[in-house]
Amino acid sequence: MILHINHVQPGRSESTSGVVATLLSLLEAGEIDPNTLGHLNVHIDWVQYKSNFREPVTIRRVVRDDELLPLTDIAVDLRQIQQETMRKALSEALNGTGPDSLETPKRTYLESFTPMRSSIIWTFNSVFWKYLPIWEEASGKGYEKALPGGHSDGHNAQAIQDSIVEFWEQLRKVDSQHLLPPEIYILEIGVGTGERASRWLDGFKALDSERGTTYYPRLRFLAGDYSVATLNRVMASLEAHRDLSSFVEVDAMNPFKSLSHLRYKVMLITLSNVYDNLPTDELVLRDGKLFFIEVRAYVPSSEAARICEKYHLPAGDLERCVQKLLQDGPASFDSLDQGMGFWQEVWAAVRLEERLVSAHNLSEAHLPTGMKPSYIEGLIENAPANIRFQLSSGATESFINTIPLLHPRGSLQVSDIFVEKLTDYLHGFRGPGKMDGSIVNWVNGALLEVVGAQSGYDVHFAPFRYRKGSKTSVLYTTQRE
Amino acid sequence: MSLPLLPTSVVGSYSMPGWLERLKTDYVLRRISRLELDEIHDTAVKAAIKDQEVAGVDILTDGELRRDNLIDYFAERLPGVQIDRASKKFYYDFYDSVVRGKMPTAGIGIVNDFKFLAANTERIPKFNVTGPHSLVKRIRNEFYKSEEEFAHDIARVINLELKELVRAGLKHLQIDEPYYSGFPEDLPWGVRVLNTLVEGVDARITLHICYGNRYGKPTWAGNYRYLFPTVLEAKVHQLSLEFARRGGEDIDLFKELSGKFEIGVGVIDVKDHEVETPDIVAERIRKAAEFVPVDRMFILPDCGCLHLPQPVAFSKLKAMVRGAQIVRDELTK
Known about the structure:
Strand order of the largest sheet of chain B: 1-4-6-7-8-9-10
Number of strands of chain A: 21
Distance between the termini of chain B: 23 Å
Helix content of chain B: 25-40%
Mean pLDDT of chain B: 95
Number of helices of chain A: 15
Radius of gyration of chain A: 24 Å
Oligomer: heterodimer
Strand content of chain B: 5-15%
Strand content of chain A: 25-35%
Number of helices of chain B: 9
Mean pLDDT of chain A: 88
């Protein structure tokens, strides 16, 4: 048995040692099969997100070509596990008899095993954004209020002002080299309420006037979002800058698709908290061997029965009702209240079962479109022999499909939660977590750095210094000189 | 060998296979020997030549597959330039190179690479040399009083090698100066050192000027207006220019040349993986023909195909050749 302590959470040493002591006690009592012991990895995590997809004790089987391998992972979430139930939970998991054992009737499955990025949880996520106003009304709080700290870092006044000054100086420099195009394109992807964009443009206009330059009238501001409803809302926010603003339906994972006419023309591209909400796959290295993660979403059957009863739905009909919700929205139920209540309770109850699938090589690992296997090879060349990390598939695709829009002297700035070094995955849980009705995942910044470097871009990170304790950092990308 | 109307050529580099990138990097990291790398290069170059021949290109190159990038192939060979071999980890990066004293007169040893090309094709071979202006922008100067002085000395040294190339049978020479577009203010001395470089070199000389192709994307933006009138002083026969990606927006400028130069018209966008159809290529040629006499026009991609996957590069060259044929047929009906 190999014990992996994947957290450095202060004040948790007692519960960590409690898990270790319980495991040893189970061993001493002969409750762990010696055949299992030799292939057992126990991971002790502290899951950062209060709401997530994990049981207190999770078992992960390992398969190769549908054959079950003896290697087994058990993951313990210190945040959830209770001292009183720890022994029973661990014993049941180790002996495959607990609620986490495979194909148990105690679970109502919502899908078959699938790569993580294709899981139904991402459909829940999309539906959340589609029906955001209804969700906000039902939950009684706006999306931003549900964020840690209750507001978006993207709206920080000082951060906006510094960004304006920095951009003006960038323009000044390019202008002095006679390389400034007549039209100065700016793109914000995931424009939200438009509040940041509005403040930014107000501030830029004022600075331009104060410094006696005429850059503002040359700006072409593109507000990009995949939601037309959002773009309509933003249109009103940007009324004062209407002459130079456009509103574009943009796929966050492929902005180039709808903006290819702006190839190499955009001077500034910004994204805030977009990457952390895009689908991802995960890879695992065990003793240097490669595995990828497959998941299947489920709701504990007791919860499924309770939810169906509460919302007067036929018992055992949970899966069909979930499909109806995801296809037709909450209004397709007898009443919107019923639909919303059902949605919120299912979302709270949904969990992910995981398994590790042995990969013969990287080409089997569902790499993001546009990513060469050599990028991952380069990344893991010096990685620890045992590590699990995100491919940040959606974020990586978005990055790959955004940089061709950059003007040779332009920059891409992404505010998000980044894992800046691969080894940081050894020291903390990086998602997925649940954020109100959506998903949150940290983004593999180390991988984006490799992707950028291989494409001729320098990528670096700076902490978001405007809010104490903020986990946000800003990824800056510029073309390599 | 005679050339048809609207002869086709390539700018220089051909698709760099992923496996060759890895092996080149292996050499940089001392995992394989120079001898092994040379053998690998020979094989890759033969394949690149074959692709160009099959595509039907009239004037072809060795695909520049022996080169790490447009600078290091020369920086490693220029006498007096010191290279920090530990300064790069990936073959495509630039070495940290520096000149700390006057460059001695010596050969740079590129003639055999041309001879290999010439021996492996029956088409017309072209050889490319990075121009002095671009080289001084990447090789650190700790000796010469000015960039122009340094560039002039580079031109003096390479000029001797160019004459050796001509003695070895070279008839089509191309000088690459992509950095002109990034430093338009340097153009007067850039053209002066170019003229030093080609002085007494008895070959058809093309000057290639683009907006950069590092990592398959432009390094600079703008238009070719900055070339005028200084470029008229360049002692070259042909200008090879990037038009396809930029929509041919300033090709009208070259009407003013009044036959001073042949124009190599870029009709293939090498920064886009979507393959042009022959009809699109033909349309680009027709547009160019409004401003450039067809008997003074050569048909090329915008720049090198280095960053395109092989199937894409090959298909683009085929489309280029077919597009040229369409217009040729129209003109000779």
